[in-house]
Amino acid sequence: MKPEVVLTILIVTILGMAMEGCHCKMVQFIFGDSLSDVGNNRYLSRSLATANLPWYGIDFGNGLPNGRFSNGRTVADITGDMMGLPRPPAFLDPSLTEDMILENGVNYASGGAGILNETGGYFIQKFTLYKQIELYQGTQQLIINKIGKEAAQQFFQEARYVVALGSNDFINNYLMPVYNDSWKYNDQGFVQYLMETLQRQITILHSLGAREMVVFGLGPMGCIPLQRVLSTSGECQDRTNRLAKSFNKATSQLVDNLSRKLTNSSIKFGDAYDVVNDLITNPRKYGFNNSDSPCCSFGRIRPALTCIPASVLCKDRSKYVFWDEYHPSDSANELIANELIKKFGFLRVNDSNAPSPAPAAAPTSGAAPSPHN
């Protein structure tokens, strides 16, 4: 073959590759707290916010703890499945590689994390939102080194982004007198402080290529079992719920403003308050029979903040809205995810891919089996 023919073929091939760009799968990058953590904190050796003990994960895969703060899946797991998105592994997963990132994205969520760096300080180790963004920057450099700057830019701009934090900033910061923020701000001032911080964080993510983003609001956090048991009446804490509503209103306005201001951005606010509140207020309407106490508890000793091997499980995990003092059960997460998908009209984005598998064992009745069974 003549040299000029070979050269022509080579040039055409290179141009074709350049025009095609990155044929990467659409993935998601998740920034969050324990409601979205899929195992980061289990690799933080000094963290006091972990889900490493039975009976966490009892209704997921092999039934052993996997880092999720639930008996099964998270809301992010389920919504991603329904949209045809792969489940992103934890950033600290030892098996994480560049190829896995290109195939599945990354989950940076960390139990105890907040929008603010000072939130959840007594958990000792966790990834704050600023730290999660820093880790995302490192991920970007890995992918740039793997596939080149232009292809990496396309990959990250076509990905989906989830930001879901805020409850710890109240429950494990502002509402606790051991933190300076509890006496430094009033309610309105603290929400404004959160918004100023969140605005900077979303703007940084946008500058790093995030274009399609959902920023989730808070549910009625005054109705989680921990808040109920700390009240004198056992009812929901009104002030805590009012703070959640104030946060949601301010975040919705912030997201609207940023979506207009930031170039080529589509930033949506995910308001789950009404969905979760209706589930808690009318559990039997959705097939549940308990929405005020945890399935996994330490008998009458409450609050036992985490589920432990000595804890007693409820008779039917599928009938309890809450798994432990803080976190919903797999069944509740499934209902919440399905309601959010209907409410926001989330569409499948990877039609050729089947959803990731659901838990191998659905929630069942009866006491907890031995983890070796």
From TrEMBL:
One of its GO terms (biological process) is lipid catabolic process. It holds the Pfam family Lipase_GDSL. Residues 354-373 are annotated as: Disordered. Residues 1-24 form the signal peptide. Keywords: Hydrolase, Lipid degradation, Lipid metabolism, Signal. GO terms for molecular function: hydrolase activity, acting on ester bonds. Belongs to the 'GDSL' lipolytic enzyme family. This is Uncharacterized protein. The lineage of its organism: Eukaryota, Viridiplantae, Streptophyta, Embryophyta, Tracheophyta.
